[in-house]
Amino acid sequence: MSKVFEEIESRAGEIAKYRRHRNGRGFVAQTATVDPSTYIEPTAYVEPGATLSGRCWIGAGSWIDRGAILSAGVFVGANVHVGADAIVGVGAQIGSHSRIGAKARIGAGAHVARDSTIPTGAVVAGPPPSGGPKKSDMGRAA
To answer: Is the C-alpha dihedral spanning 62, 58, 97, 128 positive or negative?
Structure first.
């Protein structure tokens, strides 16, 4: 019979309990909230207090830090660190080997290129909403 929880000690000496997520077998801290439809690679970690909404995909070796929030449909490539208390908007994509700083905000639909570093507290806007007035429509009488 296999263990339900794995205990891992941090550098600070704190022990956290992790379970394997059913979809992908990645490590999820006991106090993290992860939607069942989210896929987490077996070597990825989701830290305590993090929240991952539905249909996210977390790549191999990636680390979702404490209190981070990933909205629905977020893609996180391999070996990415999403910093503590960062927020990633709906459908955003974060390329492999990227580092997202603590308390950073990644907008809905944003694309962060691979090997990028987003500083602590930075804001990355997503694409402008579609359906608004087009540049060619500006100034035309109705």
So the answer is: negative
pTM of the model: 0.85
Provide the H-helix boundaries in 29-128.
Answer: none
Q: Tokens for 92?
A: 């955003």
Count how many residues are written for the chain. 142
Cα 127 from Cα 51, distance rounded (Å):
24
| pLDDT per position as a tens digit, 55-79 | 999 999 999 999 999 999 999 999 9
- Report the C-alpha gap between 79 and 69 in whole angstroms: 18
Give the domain ranges of the chain: 5-126
d(CA 5, CA 141) in angstroms, rounded, equals 65
CATH number of the 5-126 domain: 2.160.10.10
* Per-residue pLDDT tens digits for 20-50: 999 999 999 999 999 999 999 999 999 999 9
Distance CA 68, CA 89 (A): 11
